[in-house]
Amino acid sequence: MTLVIDVRNIKNELELRSALRPAIEALRQGGIVIYPTDTVYGIGCDPLNENALSRLLALKGREGKPLPLLASKVEVVKRVAEVTPKAEKLIRSFWPGPLTLVLPVKINFPHQITFGRPKIGVRIPESNVARILAESIGGLIVGTSANKSGEKAPREFKSAYLWAKDKIDVAIDGGLCPIGQPSTVVEINYEIKVIREGAIEINDIMKALRC
Predict the structure, then answer these.
(1) Of 2, 141, 190, 205, which shows the fewest CB atoms inside 10 Å?
(2) Residue 71's Cα: distance from chain center in Å?
C-alpha cells in the first residue's frame, strides 16, 4: 500500500524534513516516490539503483529514452556533468527553476539513465521538497513526470497519485504545482540546441546567453 504524506501546509524547513523522512527512507531502500516540483509532479528514485530504475521505467512504459535528473545544488551538477561557460550563464539566470540543461556527462550512470548517450539532462528545481529528496540520496533524484509515457504531465496531486497508487512506495501531496508545465530543455555542447520549449521561452534563453 502506498504511503501518502501531506506537506501542503508545512512552511518550516525543519518540519518539512521531518515529514519527508519516510519518503527518504523509501528512496534509500530502492523505492519509488511521487513528489511535487515547481513545474509538475515527478516520479523518482535513486538514479544509481538499477532495480528501482527498471521498476520506474516499466511503470511509465518508457523505453530507450534517457531519464532527467533533479539536483540539490550546483556543486552536484558540476560533479557529474561538464558545465561550460554558456551553461554557467543559463544556470545564473534560471536556476533554481524550470530549465533542464543537457550536458556532457562525467561519470558512469546506470544504462537506464543515459541509454548509452554521453550526456545527461539535469536541473535544480525551485521546490524544497524535490531538493531535500535529492540531497538525501547523494544530491540527485530521477525527475521524470508522474504519468504514463506520452500522456500529459500532472500539475495536481490527485492525477499523479491515481495513476500510480499501489505501484509506488510513497506519494507526497504538495498541492498544486505553481508553474504547471514541464521545464524547457536545452542541450549545450559545442552549440545550443532547444529540445523542448516549456515554462521558459526560447527568446529568454537566447537573451540570457547574449548577456
Answers:
(1) 190
(2) 7
